[in-house]
Amino acid sequence: MVGDAGAARKGRSHVSEDGHRHQRGGTQGAADTPAVSVAPELLCYLGHVDMAALLAADARARLVGVGIDEVLVASGALDDQTATEILARDLGLPSATHGLRDLPDDPAVAEAVLRTGTLVIPNEGGRPRFVMAARGRIVRRLRRALRRDADLAARVGLIAPSELARRIGDACGPRLALAAAGRLLRADPLKSAATLRPGRIVGLGAAAVGLPLALLLALAPGAGILAVQVVLSLVFLAWIALRLAGCLYVPPEEPAPRLDDRALPVYSLLVPLYREAASVPRLVAALQALDYPPEKLEIKLVVEADDQATRAAIAALALPSHMAEVAVAPVGPRTKPKALEAALPFVRGSFVAVYDAEDLPEPDQLRRAVAAFGAGGPKVGCVQARLCIDNGGDSWISAQFAAEYAGQFDVLLPVLSALGLPIPLGGTSNHFRRRVLDQVGGWDPYNVTEDADLGIRLARAGWQTRVISSSTYEEAPVTRRAWIGQRTRWLKGWAQTLLVHGRWPGALVRDIGPGGTLALALLTAGPYAAALVHPLCLGLFLADIVRGVAGLPCTTIMEVATSALTYTTLVAGYGGAAVTMVVGLGRRGMRPGWRTIAGTPIYWLLLSVAAWRAVIELVRRPYHWQKTEHGVARRGAGGGLRSSASAPPQPRPEAAWS
Question: What is the distance between the alpha carbons of residues 477 and 484, in angstroms, rounded to a whole number?
Fold first, then answer.
């Protein structure tokens, strides 16, 4: 046994390629079998994994900077439970899977257990016991601790990480959901939409503005209409000017990310799903195509516990080891932000990103986000990828939506990012530092555009948001009814965001400055101004045509002012929208069709319908979540995604989606 002893002193053992230990100086038959040098901690896997796979996993572990157990589980060579049982035997520890009874019912304790992977069980009259979901570096630390303290083995048991998460979810799921629903409300009530009284606010606003306006209209109708038109037009024109400024700004090219796998952090993805059974197979395929080490990636499919159809669709798939379902108890508001907040304790990554059911992100997006965080420095708390509609050819409304999205994500948001202004985040493909999410209170379960609200809270807390060129392809509504429902929710949420952050204007100005406050007002109030001023101006213009006075000289100063505002607003509005469309789509190598540009007046009239519905819902059902149906677009089969190499992003090849 001299050879084995020497190998042990050097930290390696010699094992033949067929998996048997090999003695140097043994029989001739043994000497004929090639021997390889294997680290002692790998030997426990022999008999479960063949030597070639084990050596490949060892090389992969050193390349990526993780434990070999993490590689074996991620590759599918071992399942989570089997890997834990092997480790337990190797370390001389019991498996706690079947005997675990002392689960916490306090949500704060449950969150701490999920975060650390360690359950502490008090022991009356003795030292506490531990149940650990150990992987990778934690296993190595535990191995060293067991060498130092021989008595520790009697107080530690191992459990598979997936099993611990499942047990905690089963035992404490409703309490975790309730805690998630009230987390921001308890921490900072004035920044939660739950403390708004929309009916009272709208009533007071109507009384404060409506009564004087009604009196003015009764006494001087022309002056009253002009006053309304002036206020709305100024907001609307400033909103258009902000978009035109984006047309003049050309985002700089981004270098390709060059981080090697060892330097990459652990990344967690949250994917909220509700009534999305049809989208699950495509979604899982798109997430599997992400170019990121699976050993450092975890993906949580967040579902409502009573959404049986979606859960059945997930169960029907053979999910890879780094994907798992998180079932959220149906308590509190049934909203996407509540689901995200309830699922957050189940993730371990230092970076967290959100994707929607219909999303198809470019494969290198996570690497680009990591590079952007590094380049931006420690004050960058969020990175927003650009959203692109890939079913714009399905209908007139989806074409309008695609052009509008191009103006938003390829024109407006990049210039806001460059100027350091607050950014109302898109509902998906936003990437966060986990500690920043915790610091600002996470998502507000009572705000139906939680993305916009979170973007403003990040800015108020001093964190910066960067926009990157990587794209996520999304599905637009294909019917007017679906579009109006979705836009109603968005407008209602923007109103909630404006009311929440505007209730103490002085504090808002101190937090984000006058420029940031003005930008926030325009970004949230601008769509309402457009929805209200456009029908007014269009009505005045049509009235002039009917009366036969359009284009004729005005006879009074009131007519001059009204006509000037009407024509300026219409021309600037339509012209600004057209320019933004052309520039935004042009940055993707596309151009809008004539029907899209010519249909802008009708699209804005539909926006007016959605805006008035949003005001009514804000009073009657402020927290109602209007579900947008997905999986109805003609997006073709999955696959064909490309990695963006530099900004600006290019259009996806049509051949991949024909």
Answer: 9
Q: Tell whether the torsion through CA atoms of 405, 407, 409 and 412 is positive or negative.
A: negative
**Host H or E run for residue 380:** strand 380-389
Confidence tier at 653 by pLDDT (50, 70, 90) = very low
Q: What is the mean pLDDT of residues 143-160?
A: 90
Two tokens at 266?
A: 């652990």
- Letter for the amino acid at 439? Q
Residue appearing with tokens 């048997």: 20
Rounded Cα distance, 133 and 119, in Å? 9
Compute CA distances 436 → 315, 353, 381, 527, whole Å.
33, 12, 6, 29
Bridge partners of 328, per DSSP, are 304
Full strand arrangement of the beta sheet holding 156-158 = 118-121, 129-132, 156-158
**By the 8 A CB rule, do 610 and 488 touch?**
yes
Q: Which residues contact 600 (CB under 8 A, 6 or more apart)?
A: 400, 574, 577, 578
Q: Quick check: 302 and 343 in contact, CB under 8 A?
A: yes
Cis peptide preceding 257, ω within 30 of 0: no
Six-digit token string for 67: 């434990």
Would you say 428 and 450 are in contact if contact means Cβ atoms under 8 Å apart? Answer: no
399 vs 602: CA distance, rounded Å = 13
**Beta pairing, strands 297-304 & 323-328:** parallel
Q: How far apart are CA 43 and CA 54, in angstroms?
A: 9
Bridge partner list, 38:
13
Averaged pLDDT, 371-390 = 95
Rounded to whole angstroms, how far apart are CA atoms 411 and 419?
A: 13
SS3 readout for 84-123: HHHHHHHHCCCECCCCCCCCCCCHHHHHHHHHHCEEEECC
Type of residue at 122: P
Contact 135, 143 (CB under 8 A): no
How far is it, in rounded angstroms, from Cα 13 to Cα 314? 43
pLDDT at 549: 58
Q: How many helices (H) and strands (E) does the chain have?
A: 24, 13
Say whether pLDDT at 548 is over 90: no
- Report the distance separating Cα 410 and Cα 420, nearest Å: 16
Report d(CA 242, CA 221) in Å as an integer: 32
Residue 651 has pLDDT above 60, yes or no: no
Which two structure tokens, joined as six digits, stand for 276? 């999305």
- Prediction pTM value: 0.87
Rg (CA), the chain: 29
Return d(Cα 438, Cα 454) in angstroms, integer: 12
| 325: its two tokens | 């379902």
Q: Is 115 exposed, middle or buried (0-12, 13-18, 19+ CB in 10 A)?
A: middle
User: What is the pLDDT of the chain when averaged over all its residues?
Assistant: 84
166-179 as b/e: b if 16+ CB within 10 A? bbbbeebbbbbbbb
State the residue for tokens 């074996």: 72
Task: Return the sign of the alpha-carbon dihedral for residues 308, 314, 317, 322.
Answer: negative
Residues composing the chain: 658
Token couple for 249: 């700004």
- In 10 A of CB 210, how many CB atoms? 11
Q: For residue range 477-501, what is the model confidence (pLDDT) as tens digits?
A: 999 999 999 999 999 999 899 999 9
Q: Whose CA is closest to 371, among 524, 240, 263?
A: 263
Q: Name the pairing type of β-strands 464-474 and 380-389.
A: parallel
- Rounded to whole angstroms, the Cα distance separating 567 from 236 reads 13
